[in-house]
Amino acid sequence: MKRLKKVGYIILGVIVLGLLIPQNMQMPVQGATSSDYNKNSYWAYPWGRSITHKGVDIFAKKGTKIIPATSGLVLYSGNINVGGNIIVILSSKWRLNYYAHLESLDIETLNWASKNEVIGTVGDSGNAKGKPPHLHYSIMTPIPHLWKIDDSPQGWRKMFYVNPIPLIE
Ligand SMILES: [Zn+2]
User: Fold this and answer.
1) CA of 136 to the centre of ligand 1 (A)
2) pLDDT score for 7
3) What's the 80 CA to ligand 1 centre distance in angstroms?
4) Mean pLDDT, the chain, as a whole number?
5) From the CA of 137, how far away is ligand 1's center (Å)?
6) Does residue 17 sit within a domain?
7) Is 103 within 8 Å of 123 (Cβ atoms)?
8) What is the CATH number of the domain that holds 44?
9) pTM for this one?
């Protein structure tokens, strides 16, 4: 029992530490500026089958280098239907950083992605095929932000997302 308590404290400590580490985020598309994305695109509606747009689209030439907006552990680097070539990075505050429609994947699952490391390049994979190449970047939080819920379409789901736009500016 005593040992279980100790393990409990360690887990709690790790969780709290994860919440305290500062994020210091950066623009994930190399050379991109605020004119390469629409400032109002987060939770834009209507947005096709997604209904609302849960991230930001940063437009750039195919092959432009992508660096992580914030460092973290690569939980997945591979291909899925809608997102195409995607990378999911777990960063501080237990956030999941989702990078989609990549041309190349330059980091593998379970590697650490540091902030100045190229993790991939901009492309049009997945359901972005035939559209102007862009990086879809979104931030998910498994710890619900209940105060973010509003009466917009799918507004209740906002508790599981973070608007990346003010963080990458
Ligand atoms: Zn998008």
Assistant:
1) 4
2) 87
3) 15
4) 94
5) 7
6) no
7) yes
8) 2.70.70.10
9) 0.90
